[in-house]
Amino acid sequence: MRQRTIASHFARAALGGARRQGFDYLPLLQQLGISPQLLEESRARIAPEQFARLLQALWQQLDDEYLGFGRAPSKPGTFAMMCHALIHCRTLGKALQRGLLFYGLFPDAPRLSLEAEGERVRLVLDDSTLWDPDHFLSESLLVIWHRLGSWLIGQRIGLEQATFGYARPAHGAEYDLLFPCPLVFGAPSSSLLFHSRYLDMPLLQDERTLKHFLERSPADLLSRPDDGHSLSSQLRRLLSRDTARWPDLDTVASHLHISPQTLRRHLREEGTSFQALKDQLRRDIAIYHLGHAQLSLQEIAEQLGFSEPSAFHRAFKKWTGVTPGAYREQEN
To answer: Does the keyword field hold Transcription (predicted)?
Structure first.
């Protein structure tokens, strides 16, 4: 119920390589139950499982794990083989080095490197070989390596900074789901910064757990948003406990043992507000229910605390650009 939905931008961007190659993906979208009209609406959202299915289908149809964004294709199975090559390493540092060395064997592959910065280490991406106007593959590679590393050691690697070699894009508000840390745009390169202590941690995974992991990866790594440990994420978890009776800001602040003014300030620093968090959570829960046929529109409105279905209709159209009825029709 608390799952984050995926902005339609990422689905459109994922299809960019297919468009470039002249691949007709409309039958594929129809097969996956994703409306092309919905994707064209900039405010629309799709469910994480839909996004994962789209990525897996594109990899298969294009026969390319780079989805048409690379100078040369990366044959399906390359990522899995890299994982098998590193799974027996003793520490995360050894595993990352082996994984990066593996991809270094392919002359046209985008280059990733680990650079020490005192007690920190930076994972740097050289994406100069990519055709990637929306930066989809660049962002995906950073997300995949971060989440793969976290999975290997059985704990989330805390990011201290993410840099991007381009200006803040129009979908910049979505980055907190991908990189829950301070962001720097217009940097010399795209990179992730984290503490070097993680490199010495032992791998907790093995061939057995890897087999299960690879059944849905790397699509699952990309489609599962990372809430991190931000105040916004704490509030989202707190609010989602009872969506029909929303606590007010003062009640939430008291629960967190801080003043309402401090809560507002911290949320402002994270680029959001209490009302925006409530709206995002309501939107995501509504999209979840609209993708399943069990509840009527009136029942969904009541679950989300709307006194009238018409108020729910207006709010949902404001959030996503389409009405709840139109969304359900396009999804089913």
So the answer is: yes
Confidence check: pLDDT of 122 > 90 = yes
Amino acid at 27: P
Read off the pLDDT of residues 197-256 as tens digits, 9 standing for 90 and up.
999 999 999 999 999 999 888 888 888 766 566 677 778 778 877 776 788 899 889 988
Whether residue 84 is found in the same domain as residue 193:
yes
Q: What is the 3-state secondary structure (H, E, C) of 79-116?
A: HHHHHHHHCCCCEHHHHHHHHHHHHHCCCCCCEEEEEE
Q: What is d(CA 179, CA 195) in angstroms, rounded to the nearest whole number?
A: 15
How far apart (Å, rounded) are the C-alpha atoms in residues 236 and 284? 11
Burial category of 215 from C-beta neighbours within 10 Å (exposed 0-12, middle 13-18, buried 19 and up): exposed
Mean pLDDT, the chain, rounded, equals: 89
Q: State how beta strands 45-46 and 120-126 pair.
A: unpaired
Supply the range of the domain harboring residue 18.
Answer: 6-62
**Spatial separation of the C-alpha atoms in residues 238 and 241, rounded to whole Å:** 6
Q: What is the C-alpha to C-alpha distance for residues 306 and 245, in angstroms, rounded to an integer?
A: 10
Query: Element (H or E) spanning 309, and its range?
Result: helix 309-320
Domain tally for the chain?
3
Separation CA 297–CA 332 (nearest Å):
14
Count CB atoms within 10 A of the CB of residue 325. 12
When mean pLDDT is compared across 224-233, 299-308, 313-322, the lowest value belongs to 224-233
Q: What is the pLDDT of residue 1?
A: 41
Q: Calculate mean pLDDT across residues 120-137.
A: 94
**Which pLDDT does position 39 carry in this prediction?**
87
Please check whether residues 57 and 119 belong to one and the same domain.
Answer: no
| Nearest C-alpha neighbor of 182 from the set 126, 235, 150, 228 | 228
- Domain membership flag for residue 210: no
| 194 in the same domain as 85 | yes
Q: Would you state the pLDDT for residue 331?
A: 64
Residue 224 included in any domain: no
